[in-house]
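Shape matters. Shown next:

___
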Amino acid sequence: MRENFIKKALVEGQVVIGGSVSQLKGVVIPQLYASAGLQFIYIDMQHSAYTVGDVLELAVGARAAGIDNFVRVPSPVPSLITRLLDSGVQGVMIPDLKTPDEVAQVVKAVKYPPEGERSIALKRMHTDFRKLDAVEMTRRSNEQTLIVIQIENKSALDRVEEIAKIEGIDVLWVGPNDLSESLGHLGQTDHPEVLSAIEKIIDTCLEAGIFFGMTLPPNLRNAEKWLKRGLRLVSYSNDIELIVGGASRGVKDIRLLLEKLNT
């Protein structure tokens, strides 16, 4: 089993920076992210039309580019989690969970026995199609697979301390947009109640000895604050914003230049 750079870097105290993909497909996409200096991609199945086959291509590209990857699943169905992990992703992000029991069930789906209930398949993409000792492979997989739990609703926020104590979780990830909606402040991610909730999640991570992650907006609003408070797993923007945002800024600059030349 390959070493999970994200987990290693987090334990070593590093801030790990990556980006999400939700529209672009193909094995070259992770290489583009790697060439930009990003250290991981997270593949968003929740808000995309990606199939397991699409995730497989992106995972293959990530492995070839030497960049880590994990996938946000659309729902915590054990059979889907197994298929995605067997396809070569190095971890899962689980959205919209509300109770500690739901989180514990996800950990069981990710981990092989005796820590969990994941079905065993050898010689797949997750083992680079190599013949490995089953005992060693399952042990290493349990050790190396990243588990990211999103805290993005009031129910999970109210029980976040219980959730953080569940063995096997690596990262609590805040979803500011959904969290703001759940708290009654849709779109107001800077509302004092939302900021206070994020502070609570960070404090919980620090107390439990796990890591805090979130997506930073392109303008890096509040980035300094959260980095000082302990943000460690950072997703910067996404494929849509990187293309549309970058192109629109370029068009604006050219039009401003044209206006200057025509005056």
